[in-house]
């Protein structure tokens, strides 16, 4: 049973857990980087309708989106070494952190593949055809037409994925990874002040999540800046069109000016 609540423990636990924040952020960053590569490879067969690979990618996405991350952690941690033994690779000395990264990368790859596919499909097909009609290559069409618009669409969704990954890393301690949640378990067991431990941990996750939200909001506004500029520039044209179509005929017929 935990001891009587003491707010002082909250403030004393925060610095101790923050010393493990870099491990949590490393899991998030490395898994997302690998997940981007996996997600792109998984999304391509579905975007280009490659029969067999499309079915494989659908099964992969369905599995990792439809099963709990905790089960995936156990499957990778206990199952991957058995698969590696078949090719004479001994993973017994591997750091448990790499199994956590592999799990989150595979999980992120499934979601990122859907984000990429939906972002590309959100771009108007007519713009792609217009770019090709003026002689743009496939690479130029992708970098100048598809990518900027797709990024503006997917950034809000991707930000949710990043924050979700940050919170999901709290389960990595179940396979022995010593990140912030793992440290909180150690502190709670040593002091028997579990409530204070979890309050301190919650505050750290909350602050980091808010910082990430702010950064992604800035990125989203930067990507959408050209659209806002186009909107502002189009307003005078709309007003001028209104004057030409509505006011000018009235004035030419002897109407009074406004």
TrEMBL record:
Gene Ontology cellular component annotations, sorted alphabetically: ATP-binding cassette (ABC) transporter complex
Tagged with keyword Transmembrane: yes
InterPro entries: AA_ABC_transptr_permease_3TM, ArtM/GltK/GlnP/TcyL/YhdX-like, MetI-like, MetI-like_sf
Pfam families per record: BPD_transp_1
First-listed, main subcellular location of the protein, grouped into a coarse class: membrane
Keywords: Amino-acid transport, Cell membrane, Membrane, Transmembrane, Transmembrane helix, Transport
Keyword Transmembrane helix part of the UniProt annotation: yes
Domain ABC transmembrane type-1: 21-216
Signal peptide stretch: none
Subcellular location(s) of the protein: Cell membrane
Family: Belongs to the binding-protein-dependent transport system permease family.
Protein name: Cysteine ABC transporter permease
Species this protein is from: Paenibacillus terrae
Lineage: Bacteria, Bacillati, Bacillota, Bacilli, Bacillales
């Amino acid at each position: 049973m935990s001891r009587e609540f003491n707010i002082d423990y909250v403030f004393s636990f925060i610095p101790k857990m923050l010393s493990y924040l870099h491990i949590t952020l490393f899991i998030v960053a490395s898994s997302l980087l690998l997940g981007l590569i996996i997600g792109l490879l998984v999304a391509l067969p579905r975007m280009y309708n490659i029969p067999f690979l499309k079915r494989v990618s659908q099964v992969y996405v369905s599995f990792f989106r439809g099963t709990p991350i905790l089960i995936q952690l156990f499957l990778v941690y206990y199952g991957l070494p058995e698969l590696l033994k078949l090719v004479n690779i001994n993973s017994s000395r591997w750091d448990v952190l790499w199994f956590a990264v592999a799990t989150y990368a595979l999980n992120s790859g499934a979601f990122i593949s859907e984000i990429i596919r939906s972002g590309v499909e959100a771009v108007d097909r007519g713009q792609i055809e217009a770019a090709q009609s003026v002689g743009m290559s496939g690479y130029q069409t992708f970098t100048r037409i598809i990518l900027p618009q797709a990024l503006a669409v997917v950034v809000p969704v991707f930000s949710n994925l990043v924050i979700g990954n940050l919170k999901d890393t709290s389960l990595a301690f179940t396979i022995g990874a010593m990140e912030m949640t793992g440290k909180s378990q150690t502190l709670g067991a040593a002091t028997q002040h579990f409530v204070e431990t979890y309050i301190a941990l919650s505050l750290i996750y909350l602050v980091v999540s808010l910082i990430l939200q702010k950064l992604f909001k800035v990125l989203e506004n930067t990507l959408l800046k050209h659209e806002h500029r186009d909107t502002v520039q189009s307003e005078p044209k709309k007003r001028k069109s209104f004057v030409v179509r509505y006011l000018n005929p009235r004035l030419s017929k002897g109407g009074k000016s406004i």
